[in-house]
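Entry:
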Amino acid sequence: MRKTRWTFVGAFALFAGALVLGGCAGSPPPEPRAEVRRIAVIPIVPPERLYIENRSMALLLFPLPTLVAESIANRRKSTLFTEKLENTRAQLGATLTTELLHALRAEGYEASVVLNVKRPHDDPDGVDYKSLDTEEGAVLRVGFNAVGMHSSRLSNDYQPRVNVWASLLARPDPDASRAEDNFYYGADAARTPDAWNIPAAAKYRYPTFDALIDKADEVGEGYEIALRALARHIAEQLRAQL
């Protein structure tokens, strides 16, 4: 059985403390961690843009000129792709927030959204944790690492890439993380599916850039499916490990 990849902050400190206290007669064992029953979700910020990445076999034969050409082409395609799916991009954060609420409740948690989150004007991803308007002791924060379409050197198809990170925090101390990890859907997922790696549905693969642009609505549908799957996996892993 595969061991969990969730990182539990503070576990080493508890272990070290137990070793020290073990030498003291009559020292009480460390108190067990409180069970998490209610989770407040911080509204998720959408990615700033969507990325197109197309890797060519020519890179292996002509590294420098191919790298330059690929970089220029990928930037141009990313701009066009983001413009074409702007409405979809802008809703990704809200959609994932909603999917997380559904997934957490399906796992038996009382889930709610944190309202009036204070964020620095120059850092929309920044959060003042101590000012959060919630009474819940556990706060779930999720963010996007990368969203776009990717075509590898070994495939002509473009497939979705949606990578997210998740961190369960204990208020009011933002450093008191209960668990944190990364989840991958589509292009960057491992070949063998597991709790952290989710393959993309075959329907949402496209042979050319023009093909995926022509089916922009379908691509957006594919992202909705990706977010639903990621939310379910995050919630399931929290239930399995907490």
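Residues 35-241 form a domain with the Double Stranded RNA Binding Domain fold (CATH 3.30.160.150).
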